């Protein structure tokens, strides 16, 4: 890990008085580049190294002493589960150091919400872990990555961020990893927390939290990122849906299926019959919703209790998959235990 120090002012603060923040880079659009500065699509993600990302934000020298490490250089759409294990372990190692006050992770936006929730449930520390990203590559006019990175380091360096689990600093707002979802394909305010809203905001060196994180996280969970990754897949319900995908997953031997249902997680009758067969064969089935906000409530005796389904609550299908994998990995395969996990975390 390299120590990055820059100074652009004769009145810079004493470095010894600044917090020490580790920045772990994984690639993504924030590290993307295109030949044309006017190009915000069709660029190559993950090609700009962490040293260049930091050099583009000289104001960081006034916020923290930075340790930089390139963990990966990928487009986050191609993220493999093995990287989750590597990232969680490295964050744990850094968090255990007395001289590290917080950790920032730069990531691609495509799967940021999944990685953030995974870390939120598995990393055992009260120190701030703040993720950030960008919607425009570093080469673009008005690239949003530098300001997002400055905001993330600012949040990680503040004592008020301790004990809140994994946070996401993006477009001046601070979100909880459990709540945040990507809601736009192009806008710089692409991340939102539907239903509950942001935790707070960061601007010009000031951080303010306006609500707390209620559900257990980090050290208060039984989950780990190195207990293996049980096979869990996602299927969707829609007009005219068939049971082809579910039957294929049963044959493949998956351990869990999350269904992205319509409305309140409702499932086409044909797909529901196939999912009921999956439960009979020992596969965990979780009902989530393809709708962008709201929650999936249990339907009591019909169909959840009768068919053995678990409901995802406010988790979207992709985060529900993360929690289902983690729960299965630690032996929470029984339906009442799984439902309790979804009701709790």
Automatic annotation (TrEMBL):
SMART domains in UniProt: Asparaginase
SUPFAM superfamilies cross-referenced by the UniProt entry: Glutaminase/Asparaginase
Record PROSITE patterns: ASN_GLN_ASE_1 (PS00144), ASN_GLN_ASE_2 (PS00917), ASN_GLN_ASE_3 (PS51732)
Binding of substrate, residues: 76, 109-110
Matching Gene3D superfamilies: 3.40.50.40, L-asparaginase, N-terminal domain (3.40.50.1170)
Active site positions: 29, 29 (o-isoaspartyl threonine intermediate), 109
Protein name (Swiss-Prot/TrEMBL): Asparaginase
The species this protein was found in: Trinickia symbiotica
């Amino acid at each position: 890990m390299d120590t990055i120090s820059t100074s652009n002012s004769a009145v810079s603060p004493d470095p010894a008085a600044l917090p020490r923040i580790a920045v772990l880079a994984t690639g993504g659009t924030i590290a993307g580049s295109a030949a044309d500065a006017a190009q915000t699509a069709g660029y190559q993600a993950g090609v700009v190294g962490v040293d260049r990302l930091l050099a583009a934000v000289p104001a960081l020298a006034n916020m923290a002493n930075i340790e930089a490490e390139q963990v990966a250089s990928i487009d986050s759409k191609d993220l493999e589960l093995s990287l989750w294990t590597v990232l969680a372990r490295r964050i744990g190692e850094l968090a255990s150091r007395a001289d590290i006050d917080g950790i920032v992770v730069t990531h691609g936006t495509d799967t940021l919400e999944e990685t953030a929730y995974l870390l939120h449930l598995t990393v055992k520390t009260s120190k701030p872990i703040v993720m950030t990203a960008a919607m425009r590559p570093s080469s673009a006019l008005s690239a949003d990555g530098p300001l997002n990175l400055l905001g993330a380091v600012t949040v990680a360096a503040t004592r008020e961020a301790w004990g809140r689990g994994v946070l996401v600093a993006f477009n001046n707002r601070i979100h909880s990893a459990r709540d945040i979802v990507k809601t736009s394909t192009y806008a710089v305010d692409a991340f939102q927390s539907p239903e509950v809203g942001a935790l707070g905001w960061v601007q010009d060196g000031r951080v303010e939290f306006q609500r707390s994180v209620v559900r257990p996280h980090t050290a208060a969970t039984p989950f780990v990122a190195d207990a293996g990754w049980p096979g869990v897949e996602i299927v969707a319900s829609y007009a005219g849906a068939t049971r082809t995908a579910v039957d294929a997953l049963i044959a493949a031997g998956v351990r869990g299926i999350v269904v992205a249902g319509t409305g309140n997680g409702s499932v086409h009758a044909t797909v529901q019959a196939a999912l009921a067969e999956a439960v009979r064969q020992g596969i965990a089935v979780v009902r989530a919703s393809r709708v962008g906000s709201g929650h999936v409530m249990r339907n009591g005796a019909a169909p959840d209790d009768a068919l053995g389904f678990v409901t995802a609550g406010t988790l979207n299908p992709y985060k529900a998959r993360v929690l289902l994998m983690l729960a299965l990995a630690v032996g929470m395969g029984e339906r009442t235990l799984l439902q309790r996990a979804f009701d709790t975390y």
